[in-house]
Design goal:
Helix content is 30%, strand content 23%. Helix 1 runs antiparallel to helix 2, helix 3 packs across helix 9 and helix 7 packs across helix 9. Bound molecules: zinc ion. Zinc ion binds next to helix 3.
Length: 384
């Protein structure tokens, strides 16, 4: 299958997607959705679009009859990219330069390269003269980088996500990702009683109380057992600010924490874990509020799910051995597919996560070819 991949076509489509500026924020996926639509049109795709806000477009494309006569494989990919500061780059972030076997530009790794592979895999299969075993439904969504509220979440809310399995070509260095930690971002505010700085005993310092909170939370052991692929949950006390002057006992102090949780942990449990540790400080003068800024659910696919075996069979066929099973420390849109739509989803793509979001983001052209062949093999063999 690998010999049948047209590397030039994969490079070309990656470049065309990278050339479209879809930085989020502010977010504008319209032109990238149009590029993807043109690329999928030649496979007889039927299209639908969701646009919850102007220019925040998610493209849905069905390749195949879509009448249930064959199983459906969903390809979930996001069209948005994180912002770029071009001054630090040695390549044009929207140029798609080729250098030393790599393609450079914002989104080459995360994840326009992966989307190009999934599209060009259809052409690879045609070249091989092999019929698809499944319909392939592309969900090329907006807004993943800011949590997916205007992309994958909308598709789920409108009951548009249906299929027998899903692949998400996010950058995993072609590792087979079946588990993701969840993310809780929260702001904790302590409240004190102001007094003159020369008489701290007459007040209650919000800064002093927050110091205790930081020690209770940062890098703390929350008592959860270790996950085989994800390790332990974590908590980072990342931002702190408080007080108004050095001669005033601080009335208020703010702390922003980033807590990563394991599959099975709900938003309520993640918050309760923070509160339990703060409350255990047992200081009657400690008064605080806790506000949740963001919660991205953890998710996991059971390794015994038949889709894992099907995927690994295709992987072995193309790349010589099963792919390494991995977990990721952050969330992707696969969580909506796994948790809300109830569809088994594997995240596996050609980019490297350490190249994502960085200066001079790039992807290996060899890995693009590998991924294209892998997806083609999966389209040929996924029978539900
Ligand atoms: Zn991504």
């Amino acid at each position: 299958m690998r010999d049948l991949v047209d590397a030039g076509a994969v490079i070309d489509l990656t470049r065309r997607l990278v050339a479209v500026d879809t930085q989020n924020p502010p977010g504008n996926e319209r032109a990238a959705a149009d590029v993807a639509r043109a690329a999928l049109d030649r496979f007889g795709a039927r299209f639908d679009e969701v646009e919850p806000r102007p220019a925040r477009v998610s493209l849905l494309a069905t390749v195949g009859a879509g009448d249930g006569s064959r199983p459906t494989l969903v390809v979930n990919g996001h069209l948005d990219v994180v912002p770029v500061d071009p001054t630090a780059w040695t390549h044009d972030p929207f140029g798609g330069d080729e250098h030393d076997g790599r393609l450079y530009g914002r989104g080459t790794t995360d994840m326009k390269g992966g989307i190009a592979c999934a599209v060009e895999a259809l052409a690879t299969l045609e070249r091989a003269g092999i019929e698809r075993a499944c319909d392939v439904v592309f969900h090329l969504v907006a807004d993943e980088e800011l949590g997916g509220a205007l992309g994958a979440a909308v598709l789920v809310e409108r009951d548009l996500v249906h299929g027998n399995a899903c692949i998400d070509p996010e950058p995993t260095s072609l590792g087979v990702c079946v588990a993701e930690r969840g993310l809780l971002r929260a702001t904790i505010t302590t409240h004190g009683v102001p007094a003159h700085g020369s008489q701290p005993h007459l007040g209650v310092s919000a800064v002093e109380k927050m110091a205790k909170v930081v020690l209770a939370l940062h890098n703390a052991d929350f008592g959860d057992p270790e996950h085989e692929l994800l390790g332990r949950p974590t908590c980072n006390a990342g931002v702190i600010e408080g007080g108004t002057a050095n001669n005033v006992v601080a009335e208020r102090c703010r702390l922003e924490v980033d807590r990563r949780v394991l599959p099975g942990t709900t938003r309520e449990e993640a918050v309760a874990g923070l509160r339990a540790r703060i409350d255990a400080i047992d200081d009657p003068e400690l008064r605080y509020d806790l506000d949740v800024d963001l919660f991205g659910e953890p998710s996991e696919l059971d390794r015994d799910d038949p889709f894992v075996a099907t995927f690994q069979k295709a992987y072995t066929e193309v790349l010589g051995a099963p792919g390494p099973l991995i977990g990721m420390q952050f969330t992707t849109d696969a969580r909506f597919v796994r948790n809300q739509a109830g569809i088994p989803a594997i995240v596996c793509g050609p980019g490297d996560i350490d190249k994502a979001h960085g200066v001079d983001e790039s992807v290996s052209i060899e890995r693009l070819v590998d991924a294209t062949a892998l997806y083609a093999q999966l389209y040929a063999t996924f029978a539900g």
